[in-house]
Amino acid sequence: MTDTTHSPHGARSAQTDGSARPVPFRGGGFRPATNRWAGPLVFALLIAFVEVGLRAGWISNLTLPLPSDVLATFVQLYETGLLWRHLVPSLTRFMVGGTLGALAGIGVGTLIGLFGLARAGLVPMVAALFPVPKIALLPLFVIWFGIGEGSKYALIALGTFTPMVVATYGAVDNVDRTLIRMGQSFGLSWGSIVRKIVLPGAMPGILSGLRIGLAIAIILLVAAEMLGAQYGIGAYILEAGSLYDLERLFAGVAILSVLGVATSAAVAWVERRVLRWRS
Amino acid sequence: MELRVAGLTHRYGETCVLDDVSLEIPAGRIVCVVGPSGCGKSTLLRMLGGLERPAAGRVLQIGRPPEGSLNPLTYVFQDFALLPWRDVAGNVRLVLEDHRLPNREDVIADVLARTRLTEFARALPRQLSGGMKQRVAIARALAVRPAVMLMDEPLSALDAQTRELLMDDLIGLWMRERFTAVYVTHNLAEAVRLGHRVVVLSRRPGRIREIVEIDEPLGGRGAMEEVQAHLWGLMRDEARAADAELVP
Ligand SMILES: Nc1ncnc2c1ncn2[C@@H]1O[C@H](COP(=O)(O)OP(=O)(O)OP(=O)(O)O)[C@@H](O)[C@H]1O
Ligand SMILES: [Mg+2]
Asked: Is the predicted ipTM greater than 0.85, yes or no?
């Protein structure tokens, strides 16, 4: 054997016989790529499938309304002006209740994150409140705040409040302690540390809590309107449901879905603006 | 303003971390503190700046801080501690916002110029290299006109070349304006380049082994091989023993 190999461990020349292959790539995957068309496409395909199936008869027309009829119902709703009659009160309830609940949740969550006493006193309360189906408390709120808008605001606010508290104090806990120490070492006031270090640092967690909180707010909005409202998307859906008017039912449900998508897009927009520093 | 440490002793539960440490930090000088891992250097520095209370002993300020000093005892941290959501100028502005200053933006511009960061004023921390981040932290410290800078291994998170450059920067800053500093480091080369006085601590509980004065002027120092060898001689056995110790 000739001593010509210089490979480590004295590998034989048979192993370095000149057959060159590229190193196989194994680093891909685990990083979902974004595709802005996939979502709408799935929707369109599903609707087209139902439309064609119903018209061709391989879906029984008792199971689902024709999508084109739902669209016609919606157009009619718009043209008679009834759409706004239902949408405006719903949106108002959603905005007022959601804003109150989110602000209170951020405030209480921050207190829990900063003060031991607040944590010891309030965390069990929040834990007790979280799993209660808030809709069960509607009669109580009606007694407290009246049958009108007050009880609906309160219900929606409470629904937004609990997830916001949990998300906020978790986020405050996770703020980098070295940054807080830095603030103290430069003699910043307590208020400055909270406003300029703690809250911005907690913002990613607060915003992801807001997503959950607002989704719950929509659910409670509909529930509250089903239980007692003349106008509102919930009332509209309830009325359609009790008449088995599937076209109107689906039109109402579609409005809710759009509301959900719009809320989520709004939070995403805020995230992009506020969390630009992240990546 | 000077600092005097008198009989400083500290315990965390059962473990004694500092034992009767006394030392002086004269104005306009850089005092380096070296010692094996876990001997209490960071603890000492936290007490110097009032971030932690000692179990016994005192840290005294002698004389008044100079006129216009906004934060007499100012830290430069090993991990920079920059707010990631503020740009370079905003990070410097943070520590000035609680003070009424007529010329705040001028102060910011001045410290950014002194640390050669002017053109990066609008950059976010994530866009900066480690060395630049530490220069921002130094600029932020300079902005409050400290009487004493407390630096805890400010260069250890950086690579060797960047460290060299930043040491030159620090020396340049000191030559312009003779600030007072306590500089904690693991690196003996840094200690002999930057220190007028090197305090060698023993392993835990930290006691003062020796205080080495270096008389050569800061600007023209070489590697100072003998001093380094002397310091290493003092530390070698301690460092080995500290390395083999279990963390409490
Ligand atoms: N908050 C604390 N609670 C309990 N023990 C602590 C605390 N801070 C530090 N210690 C312990 O005190 C000892 C000294 O810590 P310190 O951080 O001051 O050492 P150091 O000299 O800075 O070490 P290094 O060289 O690793 O930075 C260590 O053993 C550490 O585990
Ligand atoms: Mg340390």
From this structure: yes
